[in-house]
Amino acid sequence: MNDAIRIKDLPEHERPRERLAAHGAEALRDAELIAIILRTGMKGRSAVQIGDELVRKYQTLTALSRASLEDLRKVKGIGRDKAIALKSALTLAARMAQEIGGPAPLLDTPEAVADHLREENLSYSVENLQVVLLNSRRKLIRVDHVSKGLVDSVTIHPREVFRGAIAANASAVVLVHNHPTGDPTPSETDLRATRDLIRAGQLLKIEVVDHVILGQRTVANPKGYISMREMGLVFSGAT
Fold this sequence. Notes:
Blueprint: H1 16-23, H2 30-38, H3 47-58, H4 61-66, H5 69-72, H6 80-100, H7 110-121, E1 128-134, E2 140-148, H8 158-167, E3 172-178, H9 188-204, E4 207-214, E5 225-227
Parallel strand pairs: 3-4
Antiparallel strand pairs: 1-2, 1-3, 4-5
């Protein structure tokens, strides 16, 4: 670590702390703000350069905030402590954004669920399972990101799906995942897994309200998603 490029070793105009003090936080790029959190770089790479790589890799701060500690550590120059510091800062920022956003949104239709998660899911190149936790009035508690799969599959375990719902005292959940191919048509695996989760939810007294699959808007499917409940799939006999 003695060979790491420290921020104070950079030319004065490249020091993000000094630039923030002189010009305010709004004057800094995302990579520079990330560099302040990282504090130091590594041999041959400054913290700003590492920040630039993170911005290029994840493209949006929302996508970066969803990265796991393991994913962050895959970036050269980010070890355990830096990954933890970055994850902590981004999580605090997300919680503050939720507070500023005002009352929790009402997600009582598949369209509302799809609109809430559509933009975030556009950045995913593999399938990601998200569990939307709802209270008894169908208002959002939070969204749990449960599993990341391959290009065309995602592994779903009931214990992972319902762990957060139990802890948050959620009354219901909506399952959501994306199809990177753009076609939201459910696979047999999707249908089978949904049936299993409905049964698990019934045992736990947590209703699985719907399973929404996000894709791309097309002439055939201008909504860009499908709702298994609306289509009468697997939910037709659910109570």
